[in-house]
Design brief:
elongated; mainly alpha
C-alpha cells in the first residue's frame, strides 16, 4: 500500500496535550500525526460524510446525492481517507452490479459525538454570530 502524501508510516511519538496545553502545540508538531488527523476530520467533506453515516449505512450514490456540491472524485477520496483512518467501514457485496455500502466504525461513532457537539454549539450561537458578522461588515464597509 502506498502512503498518502503528507502522512507518516507509523504514529510519531508526541506529547499528550493535557494540563500544559498550548494553543498551537498541535500545529507546530509536524512530525506528530495529531495535525494530520485534525486536518482530515475537520475537513468539510469528512464532517458531512460522518454526520450522514450516523446510525445509517449508505451507498456511494446515496452519499453523493445527499452532499450538495461534492464531486465523485472528492467523495471517493474522502471515503478512502476515512476508511484508512479507521472511521468508516466499506462493505462490498458480491452481486452484479457490485453493491458497496459505507458505515461508521465504532471509532467513527465516537467522533460523530464530538461533531454533534460542534453542530449543537453552532445552532445555539448562530444568532450571535450573525449579529457579530453584521457589525463587522458595517465597520469595515463590506
Amino acid at each position: 500500500m502506498t502512503m498518502e502524501e503528507g502522512t507518516l508510516n507509523s504514529p510519531s511519538r508526541c506529547e499528550l496535550t493535557e494540563a500544559d496545553y498550548e494553543a498551537f502545540q498541535w500545529d507546530t508538531r509536524e512530525d506528530c500525526e495529531v495535525r494530520q488527523i485534525l486536518d482530515r476530520v475537520a475537513d468539510k467533506w469528512s464532517l458531512l460524510v460522518i454526520a450522514l453515516l450516523d446510525r445509517n449505512t449508505l451507498r456511494f450514490t446515496e452519499l453523493k446525492d445527499k452532499i450538495d456540491g461534492i464531486s465523485q472524485r472528492m467523495l471517493t477520496t474522502t471515503l478512502r481517507h476515512l476508511e484508512r483512518d479507521g472511521l468508516v467501514e466499506r462493505t462490498v457485496y458480491p452481486v452484479v452490479p457490485p453493491r458497496v455500502e459505507y458505515a461508521l466504525t465504532p471509532l467513527g461513532m465516537t467522533l460523530h459525538k464530538t461533531i454533534r457537539s460542534l453542530v449543537t454549539w453552532t445552532e445555539e450561537h448562530q444568532t450571535e454570530i450573525a449579529v457579530a458578522r453584521a457589525r463587522y461588515d458595517r465597520r469595515v464597509g463590506a
